[in-house]
Amino acid sequence: MTKRSWNDANQGDPEHSIRWNPNPASFSPLPNPPTSEQAMAMNHADPAQIPPLPNISRKVKACAACRKQKMVCFMHASVRCFMDKSGPPCKRCAEKVLSCVLNKSLQTLINERVPQTNALIHDLEVVSTSVQHILKTLNLPSMPQLESSRFIAPSPVSGEQGDSNHLPDIGPSCDNSPDLSPQDEENLPRIPMHSVYHLTKLSALRSPEADIDASPGKSIHAGPHADFISQGMISLKDAEMLFHLYTDRVDHFAYGVGARYKTLEALRCNSAVLTAAILTVAAMHDPKANSLYPTCDREFKRLMTESLFDRHVDRDHLRALCVASYWLHDSSWTLTGIASRRAAAMNIGSHLETLRKKNDEDAADFIRIWFLIYICDQHLSTLYCRQGEMREDRAIEHAEWLVESSTVTIGDQRLVSQVTLLTIIHKIRALFGTDSGKPIPTVFASHISSFSRQLDQWVGRWSTTFPEVQEGFGTFPRKGCVFHYQPAKLYLLSHVFHGLGCSPIPTEFLEAAHGATAAAMAILNIVITEPVVREALVGLPCYVQSMIGFACMFLMKLITNYGNQLVDRNEFIDILSRLVAAYQATPVNSWHLVHHMGNGLERMLRALQQQPSNTTIDPAASDINLHRQANLDLDFSLAELGSMDMSMVNTEALFLMSGSMDMGVMGG
């Protein structure tokens, strides 16, 4: 009877779960294969928690025939038999005419397939990265992360779509053949950065103006189904309603610059960011769109944030910046700064020459955008008493060329009139500077008179130039011309109070002081008595709303420091109560500045009414500037109207609310 082998002996024994190994130290039970549930859990588990596969270190070194004879077959050895790099047959099998078959181990098979597997993984990552880029361009939701990427070390391709903190360091992009104009070859260098660009070929140093779009077709089309409307964040019905509200009513206040497209579909096809900007502004103006405004505003800021480091933007991107800067009070300062730098980099002001020579509609469109950016910049510079981003270039100095061209539109006259008015205000600000802590010299009285005459000439000209009735805008253009004149007059003449505190007004400035008081009262009376202005209150930009608040605070401070010498207290209370009623009767979204202005003015009125008429108001008790705790005087200009940057505060802490309005009247 022959002896059984160890394998035969162990096969029928259920109690044995180990196999014999000549090495006693290697005795270990074989693991049971994972169930289907365990395998699925392992596929979705953290790779760090998955036990590593055992390393297979033993490799087949002999063909089957040699192994049967207990021989070792080496590829490079000098013993017994040989197998060259080309594989079987080995030398021994060839000599004996034997079948030479190399039974490869699992490790060998894996090693041979690694290059093909890596190539396949790389190809899949390239396809995935391309699809992700397409989805991002179309503003569609991105694909989920590849399952295989959780178990495979990221390659240079897959690493691009991972965390930006783990992006591989890449060098700056370069142009292989930078274009040289004939002037560059013939003349001496004129622009320093051009010289650096030609030396380094770094594409980031190339002037963006060479890539400016000259036609709508060069815009990056997002597609009609690639925005937050198609994603269901707002319904198409609501979007259509907001779009028509903006184009039919709101855009008239921005001189027709924003409504380039006649349908919502065309707008969505051409610019996602302009779509979001227009719908955001429209939602802010619609009293029934309280729930829509946060969604639109969030989408607009998301798109604007994503494009912050884009080197090139199109014309509609600038248009979106204009629309948002004109009305969105919580971000206007930031957006105007971005818009002015973008527009300057694209040199769109140079299109005025093209407009004058060719009467080109595209050139006129660029100039309108340039003028509106200038208006927004000057508005904010005036409100904050800061230096503006833009300067008077040739296009600003010759703004009237726009109305002399054959491409003139209904809103161009009003647009140019605002540019010329703000040019005067810019000169006023340049004369007095931004430091309002010191009284101005009395020799400035002649300058004040000169600027006052310029403002009188401005209103005399444009109030008769505008038509009596403008289609779609009624009689507002003429009324609005006078309405814009009074804040400019107040801004100019109020400088005579700077640094005076409660000191007497110099004799040289008495006329200007009375003129400032009359201008402030005129602003409030226009809002109260002119129905067309009162109806337009909701559509006016935040600059005009701020100037109305400025007039109220100016008059209150006159009462605080000078009693009834310049302003009759009872008359002011009566006008203020009617102004509060006008604001509160205006149907407006709760996010709109008019809503907050109405609440702040009401608190201001209530505080005034509670104070006895013969009570001396203690300015030191005011909380208008809590961070300084200073006594209030008439040295406030427009900077104290919003002592904080409006771009840094939320809608519940605007510059005309709560403490900002309860100034000078809370003391006993």
TrEMBL record:
It comes from the Eukaryota. GO terms for molecular function: DNA-binding transcription factor activity, RNA polymerase II-specific; transcription cis-regulatory region binding; zinc ion binding. Its main location: nucleus. One of its GO terms (cellular component) is nucleus. It is found in: Nucleus. Residues 1-39, 152-188 are annotated as: Disordered. Keywords: DNA-binding, Nucleus, Transcription, Transcription regulation. This is Zn(2)-C6 fungal-type domain-containing protein. It comes from Clonostachys rhizophaga.
